[in-house]
Amino acid sequence: MSSTTTHTEKLAAAVEQVPGVDELYPANAVLSTVVHQVVAAITQKPATPEFVGLTETHDGITASVSIGISDAEAASEVCRQVYDAIDHYFAASAEPDEPAVTRIEVTVARIG
Amino acid sequence: MTSSPDDPDFDLIAHLSDFLDRGESPPDELLNTTPDHRLAYDALTRFRSMAQDILAEEVSELSADADSWVAGILKSIHRESRVGRTIPVSHPSPKAALSLTEGAVRGLIRAAGDAVAGTFIGSCTLDGDVAVPGSPITVNVEASVFWGERMPQTAKRLRDAITTSLLHHTELNIQAVNVTITDVHLRRNATPAD
Amino acid sequence: MSALVSDEPSNLGDAADSILVARAVDGDVRAFEVIVRRHGPLMRAYATRILGSNGDADDVVQDTFITAWERLHELQDPAATKAWLMRITSRKAIDRIRARRADQPLGEWDVAAPESESPHHRAEAASQRERLTRALGTLSESQRECWTLREIGGHSYAEIAEELDLPPSTVRGLLARARQKLMQEMEEWR
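The joint structure predicted for all components is written out below.
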């Protein structure tokens, strides 16, 4: 559980560093935010929405992120660079006992 | 409930109101029966026009502190409902599932159009199967142009700006950008040029 | 919250409702913001008039715009945006009235408001609006609601009857009494 939290935070930071990315949208916006607030209320911790979703499927881990970008760079290119940043993060940080990341979803929800 | 014992005029008011509410004038015979009838009818019509005016006066007072509640309203609308279809972005890795939302691309089209001076983009649609890479896509936009602009030239500038932007940002196979001028606008807050 | 589009070559504030509606249907929040700023104050004044108080009016306007955002694509004639928004506003306001009324018996609901203030005070009421507002203050709640929906909202008897869940004859009676009362009150102030 704590390693998942660490991953999502570090991933969010990696995504934000890609030139052109200026906003990350919460993964599964409404539902997860509500759950977070409930959890935070119980544990007294501030609610921080997750900006990179990690879900375990049959084949392995799926990472997903939804972003807003400026129009200074080509949108398709920024999208690919975000993929590369996430892929690179997992390649560098993967532990032997963790399931492999088999799918990385990047959605550009706003341009400019 | 058609009468009130202590109000001798009660029926008259209801009767005159019926004419007013149907958008008709009462017959002269009724109005001329006694001066009171005419007075009552004039009063009723006066209230009606006052009613139209009072809101207009209040509006300007309420506009001043608008910012906070405008922000509240914008925060509570469901933006997710306008995401639209998923437009794929290619990547050599089989792990990659990359996309732009249709909503994002529409925003791009609007921004490109708005950058052409004197125009507003209205609705815009992407015709074609945007989910399948390489499918031929036709963009249809409606636009309003500033009064006095030459429409054919403006339409061409819009087409060029939108095409350039879509080619730069997306992998869509754009076949055509159709611009329909649906409206002509003046500046709201300035006097139009002579 | 991003500022309102003032740095754009074309200021969206200059755009017609039809353009703004088309953009908002496509997901343009800034276009929707212009609609809110353009028509919101009128809707707020209208809701306040129907409800007779400010507190609920803001909620009504907020609800109205949330509904409007979801249903903008149903708006047949975007040139009629204002009328469409006003209709939703009165529906939402009436919902509040219904909820209010569920908490109190109908008898009380039609009780006349307290007597208006002293003639001396009345004479000071300068503007026409203040006078009308004072006169409206002397109506019962139900009379004022019917009058507002009819004279300001432009609803028909049948619509008011349906929305307020009253027989049309009752609406007619309430309106007639409201007008009668207003005439008396305004007469004294002439």
